[in-house]
Amino acid sequence: MNDDNQDTGTLRAQAAERAVERAVFGGEHGRRAFLAAVGATTATAALASVFPMAAAKAIAQDKPGPPEKRDLKIGFIPITCATPIIMAEPMGFYKKQGLNVQVLKASSWAMIRDISINGETDATHMLSPMPLAITLGVGSQSVPYVMPAVENINGQAITLATKHKGVKSAADMKGFKFGVPFDYSMHNFLLRYFLAEGGVDPDRDVQIRAVPPPEMVANLRANNLDGYLAPDPFNQRAVFEDVGFIFMLSKDIWPGHPCCAFAAKRELMEKMPNTFQATLNAILDATQYAHVPAHRKEIAAAIAPKNFLNQPVEVLEQVLTGVFPDGLGNTRTVPDRIDFDPFPYHSMAIWILTQMKRWGYLKADVSYRKVAEEVFLATSTARSMRALGQKPPDASSVKHAFAVGKTKLFDPDKPDDYLKSFAIRRT
Amino acid sequence: MARDRVRVLCLSVTIGLVFVLAWQAFTATRPPGKGLPGPLAVGATAWQMLAHPFYDHGPNDKGIGLQLAASLGRLALGYLAASAAAVMLGVALGLSPLLYRAVNPYIQVLKPVSPLAWMPLFLYTIKDSGQSAILVIFMSSLWPTLANTAFGVASIKRDYLNVASILQLSWPRRLATVILPAAAPAIVAGLRISVGSAWVAIVAAEMLIGGTGIGYFVWNEWNNLALTSVIFAILAIGLIGVLLDAGLARLSRRLAYTE
């Protein structure tokens, strides 16, 4: 970094500090009065105790300062949803940010949660409802988390055992035993949504169990499950193994739904803002790279080895390119079967929270928007994306359209009305 | 005697051969890659793995030798700590019938709990997955040694203890020269059962925590439905178990005595 840059950096940091002070003290006038009364250093210190000033300064800069910690461990579950997190290691995206990252494979989502809370990993792959649930202390001890980036959108499917080839709709699935990767997963909420839209009560008419993704194919083969709504490659792997077929892609339930996420304890962002920013930049870079369809074959080859997904390249290519056999004798071409878009819309978080409420996971009344804004860092991620030359969307909250059954619009400004519009719900 | 041994060996080899041939016949009808793999496929995998047992391709992909070493390291830590604790507590219980009767109900309640059930609790409190796995091994190898030590010490001949009292031996000397040697056969029998149950528990514990170890290896191969590797791992786990048991059997022969 040359001197010029350094100066701009310092100026930006000061500007950020002043902006925060103005916001806290109610405008420039209040700020000056407070500074005059207690002295500038005391004022900054007092502020820092209630506001993560270091984080705000780091975020305000295009180029973060040197990372406070370079050797990081990032946990992942071996599924294609983790593509940007995983590929960033073999393909050098972390290195480019001056980080030395080890990606560690975990066996289940409960384990991902526990080793992240324990601090055995610095940042982690999570299902996008998990940072919300953990922050709220639902199904976990309560630890504040942030989720600066969505990993993939779409990329899940309902897979049914081959013997259920005749099944046409949710109504035919009464009595089924389904697997989902975790209670606090988009898979669980999308499966429940799909079933309920078809008039099937997901708590009474079927059984839904949490099964770690890698164990799903084996369970399907063993007749232990009738089907699952799972992350890939395990849908495609079931086809590859001749034990199941792809009944419906999750993008046909909610086109563009978030799936997995990159998350960390809020503590990392506040105590090591530069490390946090550098890691996020690596993830945003990798996500952008994965978004380009022409790169998908190269990525499939990079993440297939034992150290990462441990899957046949052929299966990963079928998932990532969207040209795949569906297990019913057809070859389908769906380029956006899985896509990569990091933007964590607040409205996505609000939808997830309404579903946690709908199915009784979330008992307390919380302000959906407040929690969404605390955990899904849409605003600062937009800034980081711009700094990397990417184009974030203009609005951090949008209406989402659901495709299954009657097309329904989710308005994030009216979550309670939305919740009441469902006939099948636990609240 | 010698003829007997030859006959046993012949029968043993025949049983093994029949099993392998039946396995081969059963799996030969399937196209390769589908269904249960046969002994030839497992052999090929074993050959490959044994050719490079110590390769290290990053934190999630290491050779079978490194995985087994990681598991044995965990086993050693958990097992040795548990054995030390079990022998000390066992001696106390064996010497004091009162204490034994007071503590016994708790032991009876804790003993049948699968060591894996402790895992979530350990993870929550210790906040370290590696140490939690070691504690799971600790729990799995505690009870047999404890029960056997208590039993062994309680059944030491009164005469021995009386002689020790008359000679006014200090407690450390009494332990080292009378109590432990007298109870040694029972203690080692407990240690032998313990090492077996610890080795059984470690595979399951490592499947839960991931990272390294033979249990993680099985889980990672299961991800890929690579059953040849899983079968090979089962054989490796079994063989190591036999070696561990044989080591303690040798120790128990050395410590045996007749009155």
* CATH superfamily grouping of the largest domain in chain B: MetI-like
Low-confidence region ranges of chain A: 1-7
Please state the structural category of chain B. mainly alpha
Structural classification of chain A: alpha/beta
CATH C-level label of the largest domain in chain A? Alpha Beta
Tell me what the CATH architecture of the largest domain in chain B is.
Orthogonal Bundle
- The proportion of residues in beta strands of chain B is under 5%
Report the strand count of chain A: 16
- Given the structure, what is the number of helices of chain B? 10
- Cα-atom radius of gyration of chain A: 22 Å
Layout of strands and helices, then pairs:
The complex is a heterodimer of chains A (427) and B (259).
Chain A: H1 3-25, H2 27-38, H3 40-50, H4 53-60, E1 71-76, H5 83-87, H6 93-96, E2 100-105, H7 109-117, E3 123-127, H8 129-136, E4 145-150, E5 153-154, E6 156-161, E7 177-180, H9 186-197, E8 207-210, H10 216-221, E9 227-231, H11 234-240, E10 244-249, E11 260-265, H12 266-271, H13 273-291, H14 296-303, H15 313-321, E12 323-325, E13 331-333, E14 338-339, H16 346-358, H17 368-375, H18 378-387, E15 400-402, E16 408-410, H19 415-420
Parallel strand pairs in A: 1-2, 1-3, 7-8, 7-9
Antiparallel strand pairs in A: 3-11, 4-11, 5-14, 6-9, 6-10, 12-13, 15-16
Helix pairs in contact in A: 1-2, 1-4, 2-3, 14-15, 16-17
Chain B: H1 2-28, H2 39-51, H3 64-95, H4 97-110, H5 119-126, H6 129-154, H7 158-166, H8 171-209, H9 214-223, H10 227-255
Question: In words, what does this structure look like?
Answer:
The complex is a heterodimer of chains A (427) and B (259). Chain A is an alpha/beta fold. Chain A folds into 3 domains: 3-51, no CATH class; 71-153 and 258-307 and 340-420, D-Maltodextrin-Binding Protein, domain 2 (3-Layer(aba) Sandwich), CATH 3.40.190.10; 156-256, Periplasmic binding protein-like II (D-Maltodextrin-Binding Protein, domain 2), CATH 3.40.190.10. Chain A has 19 helices and 16 strands. Chain A has helices at residues 3-25, 27-38, 40-50, 53-60, 83-87, 93-96, 109-117, 129-136, 186-197, 216-221, 234-240, 266-271, 273-291, 296-303, 313-321, 346-358, 368-375, 378-387, 415-420; strands spanning 71-76, 100-105, 123-127, 145-150, 153-154, 156-161, 177-180, 207-210, 227-231, 244-249, 260-265, 323-325, 331-333, 338-339, 400-402, 408-410. Chain A has a 5-stranded mixed β-sheet, with helices on both faces. In chain A, a hairpin with a 5-residue loop joins strand 12 (323-325) and strand 13 (331-333). In chain A, helix 2 (27-38) crosses helix 3 (40-50) and helix 16 packs across helix 17 (368-375). Chain A is globular and about 75 Å long. Chain A starts with a helix and ends in a 7-residue tail after the last helix. Chain B is an all-alpha fold. Chain B folds into 2 domains: 1-30; 39-255, MetI-like fold, CATH 1.10.3720.10. In chain B, 80% of the residues lie in helices and 0% in strands. The longest helix of chain B is centred in the C-terminal third of the chain and has 39 residues, at 171-209. Chain B is globular, with a radius of gyration of 23 Å. The model of chain B has no long low-confidence stretch (mean pLDDT 90). The chains are: A alpha/beta (427), B mainly alpha (259). Chains A and B meet through strand 2 and helix 7 of A and helix 5, helix 8 and helix 9 of B.
